[in-house]
Amino acid sequence: MAQKPKVALVLGAGSARGLAHIGILQVFLENQIPFDLIVGSSMGAMVGTIYACGANIYMLDKMVEYMNTRMLFDIGVPRMGFISGKRVSDFLDLVTKKKSFGELDFPVAVVATDLITGKSVVIDEGLVAEAVRASISLPGIFAPVIKGEMVLVDGAVSDRLPIKVAQDMGADLVIAIDVTFGSGKKTAIKNTMDVILTSLDIMSKIHFDSIFAHADVLIQPAVGHINPREFDKSREVVDLGRKAAQEKVEEIKLKIEAFGR
Fold first, then answer.
1. What pLDDT was estimated at residue 2?
2. List 36, 61, 154, 178, catalytic entry
3. Which of 42, 84, 158, 204 is flagged as catalytic?
């Protein structure tokens, strides 16, 4: 009898493109694809933790589709970012129900980046909302999260697709979702946020090239034509996530069944 593997789902960074993770989780649920833990970076951390807090993944889909994300941006002149992040923090408190990691439905690890050491930081304890707020903090746009001696910003700065983190947590099989480096990617530079997001993508490419082959299954939704700040295109992005996941369902099931034989 085949041994049951410990399956990790790695949800990568990608701003609006990361909403594809919602569609992928829907397909996994519909096809009863099991996983034991989630490791998320930036938007992947947000979607993964909200789901682990018990959110209905279809209601989350609808909420994002009809939500005006601009209401979350409290523009000001804070010392370390254009957006202070108070509204985002309040939103995260709401959708995570102010839960701690120990209260989640299954284990989740969130990846952020410490500007002091230049290293990635794996957060799996304390308040979920605080960890996610750190992981989505685009440097220069959102004020960072100060935690002890650490100055925490977006996980994408150091580890856009944290496959190794999942392996270090004991995963036997890693299903990684990359929403940045798939085919058909288009780049448009129109404002400061585009400059920062595109710069992060360029810096992340070398790390991605060195790590993606370590995933047992790599899913890359065809969202490259979506600008990372186009949250108003969530319907299209979620559907593209669904399509990409559906194409990998049989491969995933076969790898899980074959483990340990």
1. 57
2. 154
3. 42
| Exposure string over 186-210, b if 16+ CB within 10 A, otherwise e | eeeeeeebeebbeebbeebeeebee
Q: Are 157 and 139 in contact (CB under 8 A)?
A: yes
- Alpha-carbon distance of 81 to 204, in angstroms, equals 21
Tens of pLDDT, residue by residue over 54-112, are 999 999 999 999 887 766 666 665 666 677 778 899 999 999 999 999 999 999 999 99
The mean pLDDT of the chain is: 91
pLDDT at 77: 57
Query: Is 42 assigned a catalytic role?
Result: yes
Q: Identify the burial level of 148 via C-beta atoms within 10 angstroms of its C-beta, where 0-12 means exposed, 13-18 middle and 19 or more buried.
A: exposed
**How many alpha carbons fall within 13 Å on the CB side of residue 24?**
33
Told to judge if 154 belongs to the known catalytic residues of this protein, a careful annotator would answer yes
Residue 179: pLDDT band (50, 70, 90) is: very high
Q: In which region does residue 73 sit, left (phi positive, over 0), alpha (psi from -120 to 50) or beta (all else)?
A: beta
